[in-house]
Amino acid sequence: MTFATLRALQAIIGDAIDEIYAAYASESRHHLGSPSPPPSLSSSSSSTPPPSPPKRHRSPTPPLLSLSHSNHTFSSASHYSSSNAPIPPLDRDALLDFPDLDLPGDPSSPAEQLTSRPDVANAISRIVAAGSQLAVIVRSPFLTICDATMIYHLPSCLRFFEASHIPELLSAAGPSGLSVIEISASVGVDSVKISHVLRLLATHHIIREREPDIFALNRVSALLDSGRSFTECRSAPVKKYDSEYGGVAALAALNTDELFKASAYFTDALLPSPDMNSKRTNLTVIAPTAFNLSQRTTLPYWTWLETPENGSRLARFARAMAGTEGWMGASDAELSFPFPELAEDALIVDVGGGIGSTTLRLAERFPKLRFIIQDREPVCKLGEDAWDIHSPALITSGRVRFQVHDFFKPQPMHDGDIRPAVFLLRVVCHDWPDVLARRILLQLRRAADEGTTHKKPTYLVIGDHLLPYACTSAKVSELRIQEGMEGLRGACWPLLANLGVASANAYWMDMTMQVTLGGQERTLPELRSLAESAGWRLIRVARAEGSLFAHVVAEPGPLPSGSALGTPFPSVATLAVEDGEEEIPPAIRERGATPVMDMLGAARTLLRARAGGKKGSTGDNAWVRWMQRKVYADENDARRASTGVAAEKNVPTPSQGVQGRGLLKKVSQYFGEGG
After folding, report:
1. Start and end of every O-methyltransferase C-terminal domain (predicted)?
2. Which terminus, N or C, of the chain has the lesser number of Cβ atoms within 10 Å?
3. Confidence grade of residue 669 (pLDDT, cut at 50, 70, 90)
4. What are φ and ψ of residue 460, in 5° steps?
């Protein structure tokens, strides 16, 4: 049967290429029939404006319950056999060609814009899925394992490539490229080392080696060019991300820096070695994320970003979020239902909205709506500065404003207690494990208008990757009856229902959330369960063709019983300081060990705090030992001595004791105030 599988994959690739060719040929005829044919892809003339982008064909947003039936059915390979009438070939010079991998792309060109048209994007995904699956089938399993276990060198080399500003150097050099000797003279790194780094990238088609030791940008690496000069980047590295094209470079830098380092500690966080749980280095109070282990810090990621020494990383993170637009596709501009249907002056609250990249697109698309962008104070300050430069009119008119808010706390009053028409949570829920994401959703549910016969309710729009299962089956009926196995359009046998490697970005992001924040991307059943646990009922799901990034719309449903918000940990609810407990309840103290849920969703044990919380008690020592592991304490002291910056907050010194109640307070603060 293996040869049958190989032939089926070969047919999928061939049919998909035929579909792409037909789309480009059809578009070529469209342009040939217009009075002003577009310039060729290689044209560099600035006097001839590019034509308008092709009109997008968007299918209506399907209801949630029909997601597994209409556009997302699991098809047979024969469905994609070339049944359409062949299009007569065009003259080679007249044909609009697919973008060339060896040349930097022009995002405004018809050839590049056509790649995101739904039918073309779907065909591209099938080619990637089938090609990667075919390669794994025929290749030696040992070599596949070697590639998988040594792929860590790729982000390492990419980080050097971006941080040394080589993309800007090569951009200025043009198609002829530069020799490693010339690159070395500018960067200040040995030319042999540079050549080996760039050759690994060229081997993965990220850059082009034109001749031995002469490299040039291609369609992939050109995305890392910020548009600034090499000199500007060297003099102000962080500011290069503020440029119009700096978002993707910021995203690459973020992914290959602290996120890459955190991933290396994933197993250590899930399966701590015996010595980590020894009496000397007790970790039973809370389990840190892989990020905490990699950075030797007890601070949650968001708090760590806001420390003075990480100011540049915070600014980079904000710009990196703008660089994620490539995940969403064209439909993200209006985020689907319900925005086109909202009344004039309706209020949209962008919860955890960062510097407001999503709000900016919505405000431009819907000029009669009003917006509030909520986030932590340092992020709001960055956003206000950015809007003052790029869109000051929207701020001065009052249509858009920033609001400092912790989304774990109740929503503030809005304009005389007018309830928002929409709460927007874009790339927020995936930051948190279910127990904390539920807490965010509960706060929004309590502030939502349930609506009436004549009045629309407050809608919740969640923007995150929605993960299908990675199953494969030739029987359509088996897939239709199981929610979460809805697959993607074109996922025909023998492809995986999630289109395999073609959808890998979403699964990479899932692991990124786990190692950094203890969060996760979710399957449809997981997201439905989470929403319903917080009183929201899912009604629609929409995602662009070729992308797993989804916009899930919910409306208020019944509030579940027992939806107290005092603490993110139900098992220690009576211990939360913010609930007003003045001391540890005797019943809890007598139980000895209390189970809690850590940021990775695993059960841990909270050690017993002795009566009176005396210094030197079990709970005190457990917390202090974990917080002051030798390597962390040494590094913190060294940083303080060398920079004069005070030690991180909440790190007790050896001379300080932590009362039993203080132990619980720190657990609550560590998880409950990181929003």
Report:
1. 346-451
2. N
3. very low
4. -115, 125
Average pLDDT for residues 638-661, to the nearest whole number? 45
8 Å CB contact between 49 and 159: no
Q: Measure the CA–CA gap between 115 and 27, rounded to whole angstroms.
A: 12
Residue 515: which of 287, 248, 249, 250 has the closest Cα?
Answer: 287
Q: What is the 3-state secondary structure (H, E, C) of 4-26?
A: HHHHHHHHHHHHHHHHHHHHHHH
Quote the CA–CA distance of 324 and 200 in Å, as a whole number. Answer: 25
Residue ranges of the domains in the chain? Answer: 154-263, 329-466+522-556, 580-672
pLDDT band at residue 657 under the 50/70/90 scheme: very low
- Alpha-carbon gap, residue 597 to 393, rounded angstroms: 46
In this structure, which amino acid lies at residue 515?
V
Q: What is the pLDDT of residues 518-560, one digit of tens each?
A: 999 999 999 999 999 999 999 998 887 778 888 999 999 998 8
Q: Is residue 590 pLDDT above 50, yes or no?
A: no
Task: State the Cα–Cα distance between residues 393 and 403, nearest whole angstrom.
Answer: 18
Torsion of CA 390, 259, 124, 333, to 10 degrees: -30
Active site residue 405: no
What is the C-alpha separation between 121 and 58, in angstroms, rounded? 12
User: 117: which 2 tokens?
Assistant: 């048209």
Token digits of residue 6: 């190989």
Out of 430, 454, 465, 551, the active site residue is 430
Distance (Å, whole) CA 320 – CA 329:
17
H or E element: which one contains 423? Answer: strand 422-426
Round to whole Å and give the CA distance between 662 and 601: 23
Contacts with 594 (C-beta within 8 Å, 6 or more apart), sequence order: 571, 572, 575, 588, 605, 606, 608
Q: In whole angstroms, what is the distance from residue 670 CA to residue 662 CA?
A: 12
- pTM score, two decimals? 0.74
- 480 or 571, higher pLDDT: 480
The amino acid at 43: S
Which residues are CB-contacts of 464 (< 8 A; sequence separation ≥ 6)? 426, 427, 428, 429, 430, 521, 522, 527, 549, 550, 552
Across the range 445-474, mean pLDDT stands at 89
Q: What residue spans of 257-336 are helical by DSSP H?
A: 258-263, 266-270, 290-295, 301-305, 311-322
Q: What percent of the chain has pLDDT over 70?
A: 67
Distance CA 215, CA 206 (A): 11
> What residues contact residue 561 under an 8 Å CB cut-off, 6+ apart?
none
Q: What kind and span of H or E run contains 216?
A: strand 214-216
Statement: residue 334 has pLDDT above 80: no
* Tokens read off for 49: 């404006």
Enumerate residues 6+ apart whose C-beta is below 8 A from 644: none
Mean pLDDT of the region 628-648: 47
Which of these CATH numbers, 3.40.50.150, 3.30.420.130, 3.60.20.10, 3.40.50.720, describes 329-466+522-556?
3.40.50.150
Q: Which fold has domain 154-263?
A: Arc Repressor Mutant, subunit A (1.10.10)
Nearest to 345 by CA among 360, 361, 367: 367
Convert the pLDDT of each residue in 107-164 to its tens digit. Answer: 889 999 999 898 999 999 999 999 999 999 999 999 999 999 999 999 999 999 999 9
